[in-house]
Amino acid sequence: MAYCPATEDFFRLRLDQMIDLRHPLAVLASRMPWQEIEAAVAHRFARKARAGTALPELDLFGQTLVRTPRPSNAGRPRVPLRIMVSLLYLKHAFNESDEGVVERWAETPTWQYFSGQAYFEHRLPCDATTLVKFRQLLGEEGVEELLAQTINVAAALKLIERKDLRCVAVDSTVQEKAIAHPTDSRLLETARTKLVQAAKDLGIKLKQTFQREGQALARQAGRYAHARQFKRMRRAIARQRTIVARLAREIERKVAHTGQALWQSLREVLDKARRIVAQSAQRGRVDGEPKLYSWHAPEVECINKGKARRPYEFGVKVGVASTLEGNLIVGARAFHGNPYDGHTLAEQIEQATILMQDTGVKPETAFVDLGYRGVDADNPEVCLVHRGKMRRLSAKARRQLKRRQAIEPIIGHLKQDHRMGRCHLKGEMGDRLHAVLCAAGYNIRWLLRMIVKKGITFLAQLLLRLRMAWALRAVGAGWSPRSRPMGTQPSSIQLGVA
Predict the structure, then answer these.
(1) Around Cβ 106, how many Cβ atoms within 10 Å?
(2) Beta carbons of 124 and 106 less than 8 angstroms apart
(3) pLDDT per residue as tens digits for the range 31-66
(4) What single string gives the DSSP state of each residue in 247-298?
(5) Inter-axis angle of helices 427-454 and 407-417, to 10 degrees?
(6) What whole-number distance in Å separates Cα of residue 99 and Cα of residue 117?
(7) Reported pTM
C-alpha cells in the first residue's frame, strides 16, 4: 500500500487523493453551505429532557419529583447530520431507494467525499430504516430548508441570474401513491382479509372466514372484466359485498358483549369495511364521504388530468414552480383534497417566496396555464400571465409565455429520474416530504450540470485566497505587485505554500 505523508493515518489514503477533485460532485461538496444546513435542522434532533414523576409520599419540603428507573438509552453514537442530509440529497438526485443509497454510498468514494468523510470506509453509513426516522424528524420545514439551500447555492455561484428568479412558471401534476389499482373486487377482498385478521388478533372466533370462496370470487371478477362479461362480474362483486357485510355484522355482535376497549380497537377496521361495501354498491360518493381507494393509504384521491393514455391517477396533486429561464425549481408542495389548480397558486407563490428569501428576490411574475384563470384577485402581488390574456400582453410577455411549456419536461424528469412517479412514504406527511425532496434532488442534478457547463473548478477559491495572501504580503513588504520585474514569479514561500 502506498504511503502518503499528507494523511494522518499511515495505512490509509485520504479521499481527496483517491478521487478526481474536478468531478462536479466534489466541486459541489466544497460549495454547499453545510454548516448553515446543520444549524438550521440541528434543533429538531436535540435530546428532550425527561420530566420527573411525582411520588405520593411527602417529606419536610412537600411533594418531590423523582425520576423513575428506566433502562439506559446509551448505544451507538448518532450518525453525523451531514451524512444523513447528503444521503437524502443523493437518494433523490440519483433515483435510489433507501436500501440502495446506503449500499451505493459504501462503494462510491465520491459520494463519501460529498458527505464529508476524510477516509474511504467500505461499510454502510447507517441502516436504511434510519432514513425513515430522519425524514420524520425533519418534517416539512426541514426538507424545505434543504431545497432552499440548493437555490442559495445556485445564486451564490452565479449559475443563475437573480433577475431570473423573479419570473416563475407554475404547474400542477399528480404524485401517484404506491397502491394497487383500486377495483371494487380487490378492495372487497382486502376488507375481508383485514376483518378476519383483526378478529383473530383479538381472539374473536368467527363461524366462517370465507377464505376459499373469497379468493375464488376475486379471480372470477378479474376474468369476467377482462372478457367484458360485466353482468357476471357484478354478480361476483355482489357476493363479495355480502360476505364482507356478514363478517362485519358478526364481529359487531360479538364485540358488543365485551368491553369498550375492544370496540375502540376495531372501530377503524369496521368503518373502512363499511365504506368499501357502500361505495362498491354505487358509483358516486356515499353520504358526502370521499371514496376509499386504498386500505393502507386512505388519503389517496382519484384525479383526472384529462390524459387520454391515463384518464385517472390515484395519489395527490402537487404544485411545482420553476424559474422561467434556467429551469431551476424554486417550489414544490403537495395539496390534498384535489383542489382546483387556481386555488393552490397562493400557497405555491408563498412557498417560493419563503424559499428564496435568502437571495433577496421574490417572484413577481407567474406564467401559468388556463387552469389558473380567475385568481388574479387572490394574488395581488404577482402578475399572472396565461393564454387567456393574449390580446393584452406585450410582445416580450408573449415570447416569454412560450417558455412556460418548459415546466412540462421538468415534471417528467421529476417523475422518471427523481422518484416522484411513485410515492412510497406513509400518510399525508409522507406525500408532502416526498414532493419537496424530489425537487431538492432535481436541483442537485441541475447544479452538477451547471458546474460542468460553467467550468467551476474545485481549486478556484483556493487560488483566489492564495492570490489575496500574496498581495497582502507584498503590500506589507513595501512594494506593489505591479512593480515586480516582468518575467519573475513569486516563490512558494511568498505565496504562503509550504
Answers:
(1) 15
(2) yes
(3) 999 999 999 999 888 766 555 544 455 444 455 555
(4) HHHHHHHHHHTS-HHHHHHHHHHHHHHHHHHHHHHSSS-BTTBPPP--SS-T
(5) 110
(6) 20
(7) 0.84
